Amino acid sequence: MMKKISLIIAISLCVAISSLYAQNLKAYLCHNTFFSTADGPYVETYISIVGNSVKFLKNDNGKYQGSVEITMMFKLNNEIKDFKKYELLSPETDDSTNININFIDQQRFLLPNGNYDFDILIADKNTDVLPIVITKPLDVDFPYDKINISGIEFIESFSKSESPNILTKSGFDLVPYVSNFFPEEIDKITFYSEVYNTSTILGEEEKFLVTCYIEGFEHEQIVNDFIRYKREDTKQVNILFNEFSIRKLPTGNYNLVIEVRDKKNNALASKKIFFQRSNPNIQMSLTEIESVDIDNTFVTKITDQDTLSDFLRSLYPISSQIEIAFANRIEQNGDVVSMQKYFYNFWLTRDNLHPMEAWLKYYEEVKKVNAAYKVINQKGYQSDRGRVYLQYGPPNAVAESYHEPNAYPYEIWHYYELKGQRNKKFVFYCRELATNDFELIHSDAVGELSDYQWQFVIHERGNAPYSIDQHRYQNHWGSKINDYYITPR
């Protein structure tokens, strides 16, 4: 099934989308990196506070107002490079029982190139709840000898700037869209980005091509009709301000991608950002596969309905949500020919030259996870570990801990590279000690379930349940959980 982002935290490529809970507080955090020709690299942060999740108290003006304390810290090699602690006030209101406003904050931090630890603390000042603390890696990387692309900022609205302010870029005041989820009532994605150093690398008054497109997150293939091309003249800073209509984009996980190519079509730079779309009115139709010709193909030899059903289900880890829903409908109909056509078309879209070889290669991996991760009444590909293995491949390192004092058995998987992301972790744990069913509890990879209180949950076995008020985990006696997470092996 599709990994849901509406959890404790969801990390997306190049932008962190967070949902932070402290008692009733709900906030969303995004960030982007940009480059200023005058000041150098900088990080922009955007926070949206859900108004009805904050406690409103009467202020000196006799109005009701919420107050959120925010702390941001950027550390490079354990040295604090920038720090800001401030109070974010909501708009005033006369009625604290009917809060239907969100309030947004934006900050900028000048930071030199480097690999940072980004600490974020957030708390409702009108409650006694301690702040939730999140730490995530942040790369600032704008070399002078390469073409670079800034982060991609989703835009909620924009207007011509009357006077420069914190929202101003390239003559426009840009109000950020502080989420990576686009519900069905939103029918377009507006985005802003910048390309740097094209005149330095390609020369003055040269042409280059910018391509913007939407691709499926699972299979990284361009979605039909969601691609734009634009020829640009080289500059020190090229502005990309564009939008896609997503009215006909089906429900699913996607990447918005920007690519820069020279006039010989050589790829020079790229950037992508993850997002989710909910659009239940758009469905795949059975007529879309009726024309698929399967004569003399490998699928005609797969005639058993149960075998075909099993094969279709084994594709779920590498399928989009709309493909999963469509495969479910076909399986329930029980028509063998339709199942064969869907199965063949699935692999044809992945490898139009060698679909059978692509399936057989994948099936070898399915057999591996079925042997390693099966549990009672569940195939290995249906498990969390099996899904992650099939979707991303085998991890580079695995730390296994099954007998720590007071801890449930757990595994930490480490990927050096993962769909353009670096140094990503997956944490699985097993609450039923007599089974082999390890559940994914946390990952810092884009699009995956994330819970930065996962250490507390794993140690619930021999201790009182953790309180959300606890904001930093301290290792238990005999525990190696933090060590394994930092350096899985």
> Kindly state the mean pLDDT as a whole number?
87
Regarding quaternary structure, what we see is single chain
Outline: globular
Tell me the name of the CATH class of the largest domain.
Answer: Mainly Beta
Largest sheet: 6 strands, antiparallel
In short:
The protein is built from nine helices and 26 strands. The protein is an alpha+beta fold and 489 residues long.
Describe the structure.
By secondary structure, this protein is α+β, with helices and mostly antiparallel strands. The chain has four domains: 1-142, Immunoglobulin-like (Sandwich); 144-282, Sandwich (Immunoglobulin-like); 287-379; 395-486, no CATH class. The chain is built from nine helices and 26 strands. Strands 12, 13, 14, 15, 17 and 20 form a six-stranded antiparallel sheet that branches. A five-stranded antiparallel sheet has the order 1-2-3-4-9, with no helix packed on it. It has a five-stranded mixed sheet with strand order 16-22-21-18-19. Helix 3 (305-314) runs parallel beside helix 5 and helix 5 (336-350) packs across helix 6 (355-373). The two termini are 29 Å apart.
